[in-house]
Amino acid sequence: MFRNSKSQKLVSFSFVLTLLFSISSQAQVSIIEKVVQTYMASPLYLVPAVANQVTPPQGHINLLGWNVSPQDPPQPTEHYNRLHHFGEWIVIQQAPQDCTDTRNKVLIRDSESPVQMRTSNPCKVASGEWNDPYTAQTYKSSKEVQIDHVVPLKNAYTNGAWRWNYQTRCLYANFLGYRDHLLAVDGPANMAKGDGGPDEYMPPNPAFKCEYLKIFLSIKLIWRLGMSRAEAQGIQNLIAQEHCDTQAFTFSTAELQQVREYIQSNLNLCSENPPDYTQHDSSQSH
User: Fold this and answer.
1) Which of 28, 43, 142, 211 is most buried (most C-beta within 10 Å)?
2) Segment 36-64, tens digit of pLDDT
């Protein structure tokens, strides 16, 4: 996490200890080595936990057990560029004739009824039935729906993904190994969100606000991403404001291990180097 002083290194190690004590003793036995390797090898820049004491059930991690950092994460030296750093939607073949890219796979996955493909392009979804968690509205046309990265790409980039290689960032942008990583949502709501974290944007649907915060923190945990002080303070305030049940803010260690293994085994879905996007509009950000 920190490399400049002994006291800062102690902060990093204290996070590992805090995390381990948040997990039941039985689960510690099976994952302790993986946790230490993961967290000591990866920079995390988090801030103090909320005052609420969370007692995770056996085999779960406390999503609110953040570490203490006196400063925000160091910022990347290379200016963020969506296409250069994360690429576009990719085609992940799950069957010999499969030509659907990540966007269309999420549309198919999240539709409440069988989707209809475009007659002009059988690789793209034309219609279905999508219940948007952000607005609590239902949509029939795919043109009304966008695919949202719950932790936006730029947010991920500035909070640690800038250290990754292109292949890892590409997989993050197209990740299907954790269902809530990508959500089919109302287009205007997604545009209003932009690159914002919860301190800048929250879904208008009151029934989804606490779940949104939990998903956001779960993704940060899975990918070992940090948070700025403003973002963390905003999340802390929102948890109190929305009267969220803090006991629900836990994540299964078994699922964490499964998702992380999915990441490692699916990196080859992306190329090692970014394609040439010089002819594309690189203004997309989230």
Assistant:
1) 142
2) 233 333 333 343 344 355 678 899 999 99
